[in-house]
Design goal:
The chain contains three helices and four strands, in the order ββαααββ. By secondary structure, it is an alpha+beta fold. About 25% of the residues have low confidence.
């Protein structure tokens, strides 16, 4: 190295060799360095790729701490052989809820809305009740739920 050269040494973790440039060239062309792609970009922060993907899904869905813990416990229960998760996709979950709903007796809903008005000019209290009667019915014909309660996989 001469006195008209500049040597740049990089941090060892960057895995870049030192660079020597003439003083006239130093800083003229700015080089941007991208680290080499990693085969395991989730490390050292996550133990496995699946841990990373799971955490990413929880974050994207904005799942709170309590529900995250419940979901992790359910998955661990199944992995330990103490439970079974038979859903293959979201459609299976919806179908299961529809099956449950189809087994319920239609219910007459009696909705009471109570509006309480307090007049500030006096101490009188006015109470009014509004009622609406609606009958809940299954949204699909019972034939669509022939598999309900059979123990068969929903998506098969």
């Amino acid at each position: 190295m001469t006195t008209d050269e500049i040597t740049t040494e990089y941090h060892p973790n960057s895995r870049r060799p030192p660079e020597t440039q003439p003083f006239e060239e130093y800083g003229r062309k700015r080089q941007f360095f991208s680290p080499p792609p990693s085969a395991e970009p989730w490390r050292p922060f996550f133990n496995t790729r699946e841990d990373f993907v799971f955490a990413e899904i929880l974050m994207e869905a904005r799942v709170d701490r309590d529900r995250s813990d419940r979901l992790i416990k359910l998955i661990k229960l199944c992995l330990d052989g103490k439970g079974a998760l038979t859903f293959s996709n979201y459609s299976d979950v919806l179908t299961a809820w529809e099956c449950a709903a189809s087994q319920l007796t239609p219910v007459s809903l009696n909705i009471h809305l109570r509006a309480i008005l307090l007049t500030l000019s006096g101490t009188s209290l006015v109470s009014t009740t509004y009622q609406s009667h609606t009958t809940a019915r299954p949204r699909h014909s019972p034939s669509l739920f022939a598999h309900c309660g059979t123990g068969r996989s929903i998506s098969s």
